[in-house]
Amino acid sequence: MSNKHKILDAILEQGMLPLFYQDSEAGSIEILRTLYEAGVRVFEYTNRGKSALPNFKKLKEIRDAEMPDLYLGIGTIKTPADAHAFIDAGTDFIVAPIVNPAVAEIANKIGMLWIPGCMTPTEISVAQEYKAMLIKIFPANILGPEFISSIKDLFAGQLFMPTGGVEIDADNLKTWFKAGVCAVGMGSKLISKDVMSKGLYEELFDNTKLALDLIKQSK
């Protein structure tokens, strides 16, 4: 089995892809450790600030030393330059908020999992042309579970993951999985501004455990 398929299987098994960005290197490390201790084995750091690349390199060091069974990916990759920079830094997979064929071709050439963000059926079709195995539905809070229900039969067999606005709530999660998603992206609803600014790592640990448990019940 290729690494790309192993990572995809890990996302499907976990049912959730946690994601965040923080300027602080130390804070980023603590959040990564907390997520791992709570049971996370696939994680996305997002390229949303000036410290993203150096922080990612440090997280990679920590992962290699302490968490060898964790897949560490990079999100918010919109350009070939960003893709190359983080591939060189050792990312395991790439997540994007858009469909950029040039980024897809870079990932496909090296056999790396590429998860593009789509908002319309046309974008989904283009993503499929570039062999997207998993498609991020973004922004999910605008589109809602009804969007998945409406389009899933048009794209039979395609895997979808909503990101943006997914709640740590049993009813919310059940609605998404019933609509036909295979996993959910979990950002600020899990790793909130308060968690980052106040170092509320025990709260993050508890919420991560809860989210993982609720997702298992919702599948």
What's this model, at a glance?
Keywords: Carbohydrate metabolism, Lyase. The chain is of the alpha/beta class.
SSE layout and pairing:
Layout: H1 3-14, E1 16-20, H2 25-37, E2 42-46, H3 52-66, E3 71-75, H4 80-88, E4 93-95, H5 101-109, E5 113-115, E6 117-118, H6 121-129, E7 134-137, H7 140-143, H8 145-151, E8 159-162, H9 170-179, E9 184-186, H10 193-198, H11 201-218
Parallel strand pairs: 1-2, 1-9, 2-3, 4-5, 6-7, 7-8
Helix pairs in contact: 2-3, 2-11, 9-11
Helix content: 40-55%
What is the helix tally?
11
* Category from helices, strands and their pairing: alpha/beta
Q: Please, how many domains?
A: 1
CATH homology-level superfamily: Aldolase class I
- Termini gap: 24 Å
- H/E element sequence: HEHEHEHEHEEHEHHEHEHH
Q: Give the integer mean of the pLDDT values.
A: 97
Please count the beta strands (DSSP E, at least 2 residues each): 9
Shape field? globular
Q: Tell me what portion of residues adopts beta-strand conformation.
A: 15-25%
Spans of at least 5 consecutive residues whose pLDDT stays below 50 are none
Major β-sheet annotation:
4 strands, parallel
Pfam families: Aldolase (PF01081)
GO molecular function, one term: lyase activity
Subunit structure: Homotrimer.
Keywords: Carbohydrate metabolism, Lyase
